[in-house]
Design a protein that fits this description.
By secondary structure, this protein is mainly α. It has a single domain, classed as Four Helix Bundle (Hemerythrin (Met), subunit A) (Up-down Bundle). Helices cover 66% and strands 0% of the residues. It is built from 4 helices and no strands. Helix 1 packs antiparallel against helix 2 and helix 3 packs antiparallel against helix 4. It is globular and about 40 Å long.
């Protein structure tokens, strides 16, 4: 069974549009990625895994950011890139 890219696309879109907070996005994305039962193609996996690593590096408290962490602004930038790639991939399929 293939994964449902719409779940990821909708989640990222909700975060970027402000419908959900960064903390909610972080929790939901990590859970979705870890618990996804479908198979990711070799084109899907690098996009989703890179964003997983970005979300894992996210720190919601600016006072606690270290050189390895990213803040909400940078996370949104990375989400925009991932979203565009996922939409292009979906259009091809």
């Amino acid at each position: 069974m293939r994964i449902n890219l719409d779940s990821y696309i909708n989640l990222i879109s909700d975060f970027l549009s402000g419908k959900i907070s960064a903390k909610c996005f972080e929790y939901t994305y990590l859970k979705l990625f870890k618990e996804e039962k479908g198979e990711r193609s070799e084109l899907e996996f690098p996009i989703l895994n890179t964003l997983f690593l970005d979300v894992d590096d996210f720190c919601s408290d600016p006072a606690l950011l270290d050189e390895r962490d990213i803040g909400e602004t940078e996370l949104k930038g990375r989400c925009k890139v991932a979203l565009e790639k996922l939409r292009q991939l979906k259009e091809k399929n």
